[in-house]
Amino acid sequence: NKRIAVLTSGGDAPGMNACIRAIVVASEGKGHSVIGFEHGYNGLLSADWRKLDSKKVHNIIQRGGTILRSARCKEFKEEASARLAAKHLDELAIDALLVIGGDGSFHGARHLANYWNGDVIGLPGTIDNDIYGTDATIGYYTAIETAMDSIDKVRDTADAFERIFLVEVMGRHAGFLGACAAIAGAANYVILPELFKDTQTTLDNIHQQLAIHRQRYGHESFIIVLTENLWPAGISDLATQLETLTGGEVRPVTLGHIQRGGSPVSQDRMLATLLGVHAVKCVEEDKSGIMVGVHNNEPVEIPLEQTWENKKALSSPLTHTMLTMLNERHHWGLG
Ligand code: ADP
């Protein structure tokens, strides 16, 4: 029987609890024991942990956030930290550490593996879906739902006032969340890192698109989705520039952290459960240095390094087609 430890690290995401639950329930069924470290890698350094069993994870599948708390831990990058973490894990006779988090957290897991003999396995948990080697990440579907919902609400006002609204969504440096929210929310324009050329081209395109929209619908209720960290001088600058350009009012809305919270939608719960159960299977097979992900609804395993050495592509032909429905064709160079 194995002794398994789990922690959640980096940005929290809805479904992390569902994943912890899956790990605990699957482990218990096989006679393994599980402990949870608190506050990400900080808990590994301070030996702050608690036993987890099915009673402790009862009634958490629907809760956002993470019962183990999450945190950043700058000093974990140091060798001394990894050695200290290894010492604590050995003292507790842990066989495997499961890390639920984003690519930063996977770097941490890989770093630890250099100084610890136990098995380390990553599970992708981030609303950004910016991790190579998995079709989706825990929390991504819920964040799309939240962003889409917000666009629906913004549109009510945009329609009532015939105004231009600019909605900024998260995504760190990837456009997955922005693209899906824009497609599902039927936004009129979307600005994504993967397809961004420069500010002038974007402004010109929006201007042109808005003219077409005005002619077709006779009003200016127009919704633009913008991915965070993309517009050089920020969303307010873009709003001001658009006001100058169009002569109308442009309202910027930043969705912010509401996208990270809330009860996970069923897809995130299913994904969290699939990954959690598969990770326990990997522990039984003594696998290490891997991330468990999903591809075509089946679990997959890929070396941790590959998750950050490769960049996940946004554009499938289908995504392109759907995005073309929003933005002007030539903007994507599609002819
Ligand atoms: P995410 O996992 O969501 O990408 P971060 O990038 O903030 O979040 O990373 C989470 C934590 O992972 C960091 O606070 C740090 O403890 C650890 N970490 C990140 N990069 C490294 C690294 N190169 N070496 C060791 N630990 C790292």
Word description of this protein:
The structure is a single chain. The chain is an alpha/beta fold and 335 residues long. Helices cover 41% and strands 18% of the residues. It is built from 11 helices and 11 strands. The strands form 2 sheets. The chain has a 7-stranded mixed beta sheet with strand order 3-2-1-4-5-10-11, sandwiched between helices. A 4-stranded parallel beta sheet has the order 7-8-6-9, with helices on both faces. Helix 5 crosses helix 6. It starts with a strand and ends in an 11-residue tail after the last helix. The C terminus is likely disordered.
- Unreliable spans are 329-335
Please tell me the overall pLDDT: 94
Number of strands: 11
Q: Can you list the ligands bound to this structure? A: adenosine-5'-diphosphate
Distance between the termini: 60 Å
Instruction: Compute the number of helices.
Output: 11
Summarize the helix and strand pattern as letters: EHEHEHEHEHEHEHEHEHEEHH
Main sheet summary: 7 strands, mixed
Roughly what percent helix? 40-55%
Task: Spell out the key features of this protein.
single chain, 335 residues, alpha/beta, 7-stranded mixed beta sheet, 4-stranded parallel beta sheet, 11 helices, elongated, disordered C terminus, binds adenosine-5'-diphosphate
Give me a quick take on this structure:
This protein has 335 residues and is an alpha/beta fold. The chain is built from 11 helices and 11 strands. Strands 3-2-1-4-5-10-11 form a 7-stranded mixed β-sheet, sandwiched between helices. A 4-stranded parallel β-sheet has the order 7-8-6-9, with helices on both faces.
